[in-house]
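Open question from group meeting: does this chain pack into something compact, or does most of it stay loose? Before anyone orders reagents, we agreed to write out a predicted structure and look at it together. Recording both the input and the output here so the notebook holds the full record.
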Amino acid sequence: MKVNLLYFLLFIVSLFGQNLLFAQAAKKIPADKQRSVQWKPEKGQYYFSHSLVYDYENKAKKSKGTIRIYLDPISGAMCFLKDSSFRQKGNSFDFIIGFPNGKYTYYGVDGAGKKIRISETISEVKPDAETQLQRKEDFATYCLPTANKRSAFGLESMEYNLGYATADTKDKIWLAKTPFSAYPVYGLEFVESAVSLPVSFDYMHLLDADRLITEFDSKDTFFKLVHFGRHPYTAVTKGYQESKLND
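Structure tokens returned:
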């Protein structure tokens, strides 16, 4: 009984300590002047004022490059362009817009050259209470903070040693608390359509929505946030006809 109580207390202390590190709320990013004019979803137009830029290396596949993800800091929506972020198979999608609530819409052309849009919603971004508790427990267990911190692009990042239940390997991961949800990036791993980023951001099971990976370094994969700031992009969705996911 005493041993179990000791383990429980150690877990609570660890969890409290890591939450304390992220206790300070991230500063909100104000809307720029163009958003009130350009953000018109009802008219088929989405405005993204900022972008996240990552350099990456997929060591296993011997590939490297840059990923750019456009962001609307107000709604948390993100835009992924074919030429600068995702890889694909099958349908030719030009861009994807993802939202913090798990909705993704893909815009492209079908085999006949018709402009189509396909939507789906993933449930993983809205876990139940038990799953949320398990995530916090796993984070406290497998993400052990080091003393290293750094600031870049207005984000304060902290380094962790990331361990795994099934291996002795430890990777390096840097996390920043953000005023927007990172789940549109992490959730792209769960979509049914054949698209993916060139490196995996599959850490929704471990990270809260406001924890953005700013660097990850493992035996097979490396990626690092090399820019975050204003880089406006307007996605025009007018003219794309609704289509079903499996058409």
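Observations to bring back to the group:
Residues 1-23 have pLDDT under 50 and may be disordered.
Residues 2-243 form one domain.
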